[in-house]
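Ops channel
N.P.: pipeline sanity check, posting one input/output pair.
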């Protein structure tokens, strides 16, 4: 069985910020999210215990500089680095890279999202 090139999600005009849609890409459930006008797509199967990670809370990556363990000199949230936290036990992932925030060796599969002729697609390749 071949992998589909694209899977249709829905019209861009009906995809509001904060919306999420689930689609099936080559037998795998993928969550598509729109955040601040940008699209993200991740496999909806958490690396911890297979939870529905695409249903999780979206936040921003906490960034800062640390002078010693436990002492941070600057605390801020990165505006352009949304993260998602699995609703089951809270494992969090960078939505762009799929990197698990506590262990960057763990990568949740991500997918490219294409908008063409007003329609949103997930690239299944
Ligand atoms: S199943 Fe996702 S954090 Fe446990």
């Amino acid at each position: 069985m071949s992998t589909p090139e694209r899977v249709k999600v829905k019209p861009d005009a009906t995809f509001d910020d904060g919306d999420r849609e689930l689609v099936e890409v080559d037998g795998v459930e993928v969550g598509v999210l729109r955040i601040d006008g940008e699209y993200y797509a991740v496999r909806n199967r958490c690396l911890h215990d297979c939870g529905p990670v695409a249903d999780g809370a979206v936040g921003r990556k906490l960034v800062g500089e640390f002078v010693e363990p436990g002492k941070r000199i600057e605390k801020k949230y990165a505006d352009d680095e949304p993260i998602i936290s699995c609703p089951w036990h809270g494992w969090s992932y960078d939505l762009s890279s799929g990197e698990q925030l506590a262990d960057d060796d763990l990568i949740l599969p991500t997918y490219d999202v294409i908008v063409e002729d007003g329609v949103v697609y997930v690239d299944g390749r």
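N.P.: looks fine end to end. Residues 46, 48-49, 51, 53, 86, 88-91 surround FE2/S2 (inorganic) cluster (CB under 6 Å).
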